[in-house]
Amino acid sequence: MKKHILTIALLAALSFVLTACDYDGGVEQGRVVAYEPGKNVTLVLDTSPVRNKPLYNGKTAVYKLPVDSMDMGADPTCGGLLAVNPEKKTVSVYDPAGKSVRELPVDFTDVQKDIDARHPLVAGKSFPMIDRENLTVTVYAPTLRSLVTFSPGAAISMPPDTWKFGDEARVAFSNAEKGQALRFMNITKTNIFSR
User: Fold this and answer.
1) In angstroms, rounded to a whole number, what is the distance separating the alpha carbons of residues 13 and 10?
2) Per-residue pLDDT tens digits for 56-81
3) What's the pTM?
4) Residue 192 lies in a domain
5) Residues 62 and 86 reside in one and the same domain
6) Which stretch of DSSP H or E encloses residue 26?
7) Burial of 70 by CB count in 10 Å (0-12 exposed, 13-18 middle, 19+ buried)?
8) Burial, 191: exposed, middle or buried (Cβ in 10 Å; 0-12, 13-18, 19+)?
């Protein structure tokens, strides 16, 4: 119960601060596909209107990092893997050369559902696991709570980071300073309920 009260209090305080200030900006959220420490971050934006059902349809944003280090969250991990879709038999990846999102057809050889991050099959393991001999990639998909193995065919020759999920991040920005992040929050590495 204390955690819920703390969360409500934090949200109320944030709403008050944003209302009290003459805030002309917004917030964008997405998956980190490129990061230069002390300089900038590139996100493929989540454009889904449905919470916890991300949609990465190719829109990207590059932001200069906050000027004040107090407004900067944990350094993000980058990766090219955006989404895994066993139903459609596809994965979505970011292609840095073309600066675009590609949907690749894949064959799923194993999908284990209802696996959380503390499960023995996942905890302490490093993903992706790339098996070039059998042409398979194994990843943990946290939004699906699934451990999946798929074969991307010849695409397995793409750089290893292609098959790695980048961290989810949120950026607050001002319309007055285009491309400048006022705040950067690494959602993947930040747990507001940890206290």
Assistant:
1) 5
2) 987 999 999 999 999 999 999 999 99
3) 0.82
4) no
5) no
6) strand 25-36
7) exposed
8) exposed
Domain count, the chain: 2
**Element spanning 42, H or E:** strand 40-45
Residue 142's domain spans which residues?
81-163
Same domain, 25 and 68: yes
For residue 5, pLDDT beyond 60: no
pLDDT at 3: 52
Sheet containing strand 129-131, edge to edge, reads 107-112, 146-151, 136-141, 129-131
Q: Are residues 172 and 153 in the same domain?
A: no
What is the pLDDT at residue 94?
Answer: 95
The per-residue pLDDT for range 100-132, each reduced to its tens digit, is 999 999 999 999 999 999 999 999 999 999 999
Over 70: is that where the pLDDT of 192 sits? Answer: no
Distances from the Cα of 138 to the Cαs of 141, 144, 153, 171, 188, in angstroms?
A: 10, 14, 14, 30, 20
Q: The domain spanning residue 180 has which CATH number? A: 2.40.50
Q: Distance between terminal CA atoms of the chain?
A: 13
Per-residue model confidence (pLDDT) at position 86:
95
98/155 same-domain check:
yes
The C-alpha atoms of residue 195 and residue 178 are separated, in whole angstroms, by: 35
Residues 12 and 73 in one domain: yes
